[in-house]
Design a protein that fits this description.
alpha/beta; Elongation Factor Tu (Ef-tu), domain 3; Rossmann fold; seven-stranded antiparallel beta sheet; six-stranded parallel beta sheet; 13 strands; binds flavin-adenine dinucleotide
């Protein structure tokens, strides 16, 4: 697609910095003088123009926004042998990328006002928008208990730990836990995938709003199981990054719902 497409807006790369193995924090600044007021959970198309003129593009969720500076950030995973992210990783500050949008709702607007507790569950880079949402809503006075759970494979994949620790120190109603599916022997955090480690920690489902972000295998297991376990549709909100068509199967969902209800 030609860059001249009016939907695509130019942005200056402010920062494109690895913050963990294969996880990169990208900050862009709108370069067309128009407003760029985005919030965690908004989804933008991001385009990278290759030397041959082809525009590579994908959807990326906003992790943080600074409307006054017309800046916004994404946390993305570099996919080995991926079409776009190995190239995106090499883009230097000052270079031009393209964006359009937003689509989707900010997480803050999706979380139900009547919920008494909020839980965010992420796999991999899905942690970015959940972290950004937590930072924004706590700064703006959120007083409900808010806990984030993030699943990664190994300790080298963990990201945003200092930022989450600072939030937990500043706000007594905020907590976070990491779960590793391949932990090293001395790992003291949670072990296993989030569907293995998190259910016993939820303290039941009463009063809860759950926001799920990341791998479709996780999202499409948790959402129907939470619904089966009695949660209202509006109290379970999602964003899927890949494996969009994962179908865990009725038996797996049923068994997981039983776990969520503390019956197995
Ligand atoms: C609504 C939406 C929001 C998204 N937001 C983000 C985001 O904020 N951060 C982000 O990293 N990705 C996000 N993605 C995924 C992103 O759009 C691309 O699919 C991804 O960056 C693939 O890049 P690629 O061209 O290098 O890989 P491709 O050549 O397209 O290879 C794709 C393969 O990589 C795998 N894959 C894709 N995304 C991920 C991922 N995040 N982690 C692990 N494996 C993955 C899948 O198995 C997929 O088959 C989002 C996708 C959607 C639909």
């Amino acid at each position: 697609m030609a860059v001249a497409n009016p939907d695509w807006r130019p942005a200056r790369v402010v920062e494109n910095r690895a913050i963990a193995r294969a996880s990169v924090w990208l900050t862009l600044e709108a370069a067309d003088g128009r407003p760029a007021a985005f919030e965690p959970g908004h989804v933008l198309g991001v385009g990278l123009k290759r030397d041959d003129g082809e525009m590579l593009r994908h959807a990326y969720t906003v992790s943080a926004g600074d409307p006054a500076a017309r800046r916004f950030s994404h946390l993305y995973r570099v996919i080995p042998h991926g079409r776009m992210t190995p190239l995106l990783e090499t883009v230097a500050p000052g270079a031009t990328l393209y964006f359009h949008g937003p689509g989707h709702n900010p997480i803050q607007r999706e979380v139900r006002p009547e919920a008494e507790r909020i839980v965010g569950i992420a796999t991999g880079t899905g942690l970015g928008p959940l972290y950004g949402y937590a930072a924004k809503t706590l700064r703006e006075g959120e007083t409900r208990p808010l806990t984030l759970y993030a699943g990664f494979r190994e300790a080298a994949d963990l990201c945003l730990e200092p930022e989450l620790r600072a939030l937990a120190e500043a706000y007594p109603n905020f907590a976070y836990r990491f779960s590793l599916s391949r932990p090293h022997a001395s790992w003291t955090g949670l072990r296993g995938r989030v569907d293995q480690s998190v259910p016993p920690l939820l303290g039941g489902l009463s009063g809860l709003h759950v926001h799920l972000v990341g791998n479709g295998e996780m999202v499409h297991l948790w959402r129907p199981a939470l619904r089966k376990a009695g949660m209202e549709k509006e109290r379970v909100t999602i964003e899927t990054y890949f494996n969009h068509h994962a179908e865990p199967g009725a038996d797996a969902i049923e068994a997981f719902a039983e776990r969520l209800m503390g019956r197995s």
